[in-house]
Amino acid sequence: MLEHLQAVPPDPILGVLAAYNQDPNPNKIDLGVGVYKDEEGRTPILPSVLSAERELLERQTSKSYLGPTGVTGFNEAISRLIFGADSPALNESRIRTVQTPGGTGALRVAAEVIRTANPDARVWFSDPTWANHTAIFPAGGLQSGTYPYFDPDSNGLRFDAMMEALGQLGPNDAVLLHACCHNPCGVSPDESQWREIAELAGQRGFLPVIDMAYQGFERGLDDDNLAIRVFAEQCPELIVASSCSKNFAMYRDRVGAISVLASSAQKAADIETVIHSLTRKNYSMPPAHGPAVIDIILHDDALTAQWRAEVGDMRDRINGLRAGLVARIAASGVERDFSFLERQAGMFSFLGLTVDQVQKLREQFSIYTVNSARINIASLNQANLDYFVSGLKSVLEG
Ligand code: LMR
Q1: What is this structure's pTM?
Q2: Is there a catalytic annotation at residue 393?
Q3: Are residues 32 and 154 in the same domain?
Q4: Is 211 marked active-site?
Q5: What pairs with residue 101 in β-bridges?
Q6: Within this chain, do residues 295 and 309 fall inside the same structural domain, yes or no?
Q7: pLDDT band (50, 70, 90) for residue 398
């Protein structure tokens, strides 16, 4: 039976990392996968996470099963973090959060929850979106489509076209939105635009599904959940898939959560049983280590303050790199205007290169980006910035 299987091409993002790892060039730069790196090019364990891990080691007395809900303290703390501690829906017990293996796991569970609720539902992605979105939701049994989002001419948002497309949708549709730091384009709606989108969702009755993988990396931990708060005001139902990979730098521990806002406390409780039943058939129950660490951090004022400062440092460094990159590109004599990089936020932006130019960057300079010319700004540093800019200038002029 298995002989019928054919090899599949590498993942468009993880494949870049594999190619980079094999390149012997000492000047190589990996601008592919979205992992934060510090000025020395490392992805260190956050000191707040290390402290909590030490405490967990002392405290933990058993590794017996926790059950489908996982670490309940983590689930409660994440609900507060992503909806806001003063969320009316939280006080009405209309929100249930269940930890998942990473944000990817949350998205896959979200797809299955939607398919269970309505097998004919269609999910709509921004054009463009994270490459894995378009794989996860069909794998979860849903049909999909796209709505206009990024304008490569202005490097901004196609807001009117987006609203027109979303205005055609209704109760059989789910719309996937990026809460902040849009992956791959770095462009987010502003506050009044979020409010308009949320009002439209309330009027048309489509289900908002919000992917929040970068909370803290755009405007700050307390501001980056703006979209979620606004949708929670306007819509009776909402799904959030959140990730702790980036803001706790716990990439390999696979920590994420699915949160569901329902029309009543009873309905939220019912939906949680659906989630448990779906995950039981998949991975049985979620892993405990990462959420147990975050549970400790978010229930300790000093560790929470330390972690908040660490997230602020990562955000500030990325913003500094964006500014530095714009200045160095302009100073290098490149004619094209790259000032948009400073108006965008988070790890990612598009360089606006052709696939040929992306290949040249790779082959001639060992600079690795995703084929769409998405770069991870957080992989740049003072030591590689000039090399990167000279490579960029060369392929733009070549
Ligand atoms: C990315 O877009 O690079 C990250 O979200 C990591 C991944 O798994 O693709």
Answers
A1: 0.96
A2: no
A3: no
A4: yes
A5: 255
A6: no
A7: confident
Q: How far is CA 251 from CA 16, 240, 300, 361, in A?
A: 17, 19, 22, 27
The whole domain housing 153 covers 65-299
C-alpha 224 – ligand 1 centre gap (Å): 19
* Cis peptide, bond prior to residue 47, ω within 30 of zero: no
Atom 4 of ligand 1, residue of closest alpha carbon: 34
| pLDDT tens by residue, 292-338 | 999 999 999 999 999 999 999 999 999 999 999 999 999 999 999 99
- Tokens standing for residue 90: 């939280």
100 alpha carbon to ligand 1 midpoint, in Å? 17
| 154, 352 Cβ separation under 8 angstroms | no
User: Of 30, 37, 124, 246, which residue is the catalytic one?
Assistant: 246
Mean local confidence (pLDDT), 279-302: 97
User: pLDDT-based confidence at 43, cuts 50/70/90?
Assistant: very high
Structurally, the chain folds into a number of domains equal to 2
Is the ipTM value over 0.90, yes or no?
Answer: yes
The residue nearest atom 2 of ligand 1, judged by CA position, is: 34
Q: Per-residue pLDDT averaged across 248-258, rounded?
A: 98
- Per-residue DSSP letter, 358: H
Q: Is 124 a catalytic residue?
A: no
Q: Is 183 in the pocket of ligand 1 (CB under 6 A)?
A: yes
Cα separation, 178 vs 215, in Å, equals 10
